[in-house]
Amino acid sequence: MAADPRRPGITALSLAGLLAFWSLLAIAGGDPEVLPPPWRVAPLIYAEAASGELARHLVATLRRVAMAYVIAMSLGMAIGMVMGLSRRANQWLDPWLIVFLNLPALVTIVLAYLWIGLNEVAAVMAVALNKIPTVIVTIREGARALDPRLNDMARVFRLSRLEKLRHVALPQLAPFIASAGRSGIALIWKIVLVVEFLGRSDGIGFKIHLYFQLFDVGMVFAYAISFIAVMLLIEALVLQPWEARASRWRRA
Fold first, then answer.
1. CATH superfamily ID and name for 50-251
2. What stretches in the chain show pLDDT beneath 50?
């Protein structure tokens, strides 16, 4: 399916509408200290970028996002495959899955800091533990949807387990993996900000906490918008094309 050539223009117009709505709210409020307009926030972003502070904290947050993402996807895919292919494993592990799906992220973060300490290991593990259950659910459904006829064909051609995984299972699971990955990045970066807010000395969440204490709404907006912009770029340039490519064979 060809990409819609109008999509970039529609996206740009939609974001322009969001900026206009923000500007109208700021003008209606009449107090730039409570809700600063875009033209007040933009110079703050530029100043932080020019000083190097913005890049330093962006890199710290992106590093935590990447580490938690890799851990969550790796463990979630492995456990999800086992639960999807083995009824007995699913019966044993499903209660655990339900518990972790309903465990609030804040509780996981606080317990990780209390048990492990205020360090990087606790921060990354707390984020990963919050994402692993949702990856498991998606991959489990994908494993249950595998076509048994293709598995029979692989058996007839005497493919090895590795060849079955590479040529039979993974192509069918690709849309589910891409979906879990795309939804996962949105959840992980939000939890990373909470982790930094509560117990780290760098990162976007740390800076938001700092300016929250100073009641500097403009700087809170500056750091939040900067990170959102980076994540939107990752979404548009990496995750959306990945998901479209992974699902292409279903539309063929």
1. MetI-like (1.10.3720.10)
2. 1-2
